[in-house]
Amino acid sequence: MSVQARTKGFLDASKATVPLLSVSDLAVSFDNASNPGGPRIQAVAGVNMTLFPRQTLAVVGESGCGKSVTAMSAMQLIPRPPGRFDRGSIRLEGRELLTLPEHEMLKVRGGEIAMIFQEPMTSLNPVYSIGDQILEAILLHQRLEMTQAIERAIGALDEVGIYNRLKERFKADALALAQGKRDLLDEYPHRFSGGMRQRVMIAMALACQPKVLLADEPTTALDVTIQAQILDLLRQLQRDRGMGIMLITHNLGVVAENADVVCVMYAGRVVEYAPVFDLFENPMHPYTRGLFSSIPGLHDMRSRLTTVEDVTNDPAEFRRVPGVVPWWPHMDAAARPALADAREPYILHQIGPQRWLGCWRTPDLAGHASPPPSLDYRRPD
Ligand SMILES: Nc1ncnc2c1ncn2[C@@H]1O[C@H](COP(=O)(O)OP(=O)(O)OP(=O)(O)O)[C@@H](O)[C@H]1O
Ligand SMILES: [Mg+2]
Question: How far apart are the CA of 320 and the centre of ligand 2, in A?
């Protein structure tokens, strides 16, 4: 199947669904601790993205480009101060989250939107048992009796495969298996391996059946086979429940295998946004092109890999897309195009039916608005 057929077949405007999460012109800054009174650290400087039900939106970009700050903003987990929402909005099915009072946010956080963090040991509390932590999450969001909540906790741990070994051991003994499941609830996180802890984190995140899962480097700390198992599991649960997943990762292999749509960020902004196959086959922003060409291929005979700098230092790379100049903050002052408005040098511009590119706001783009990119696309199974 051609790339065109693969992507077009699954993008049908007449069947467009309502977005789950829309991030629109989000800007977040922090006090500058090392230079009080100096300019603020602009962690996110006008980010736009849209997540649809059953969609995996991969967010990639170098360390410090604002991926986690974007996700944490949706959970209202940015400490304020030192953080501040400068402008923009994050809507969950149309409801603004950034201004939601804390008592309302408590229902959303962990209930409608859940987050998996990179390092499970920092998010699991070492002094509480696994069971206490999952039950707390369940009881906070669902009106359940304790016995029902315990059943739900066991169900959630079962879904993530925590009991697989127990099931093997007690194949023929249902009573012993049931007791084993309950005993496991009393275990403390340090008794679990990294992969098991990550599964517990996922079980906690999924126990309340959230609509949106923010997965911030969910598998980076794990070895490759466990990583694949966990990603398969998330995909399965996503299919069953229609959940939208924002998958933040540095691993382009994980992106290629799991994403529907990819959002490439650089320095707090989105530089490219496209369906996964389109992006891999034809990256258009020089930063994306640099990122992809720096992956070693199996049959690569080059003595040195191309770096992002090699690509972004090449002026020809900025002339590949007719009519626009890709936005790149390190561009030589002399090479920068004349801008329509110096206060708004950047625009996320739609350059094709399924492609958005971060561009300099040249006079040609002066009057263009930049609504969040919206791609209601899923890869074929
Ligand atoms: N609490 C904070 N105080 C000050 N600056 C912060 C704070 N949290 C984040 N930042 C800054 O915001 C910027 C974006 O950080 P963020 O954690 O979102 O990056 P990231 O893209 O998730 O990077 P990584 O891939 O390393 O996780 C960074 O420059 C970071 O230093
Ligand atoms: Mg991060």
Answer: 31
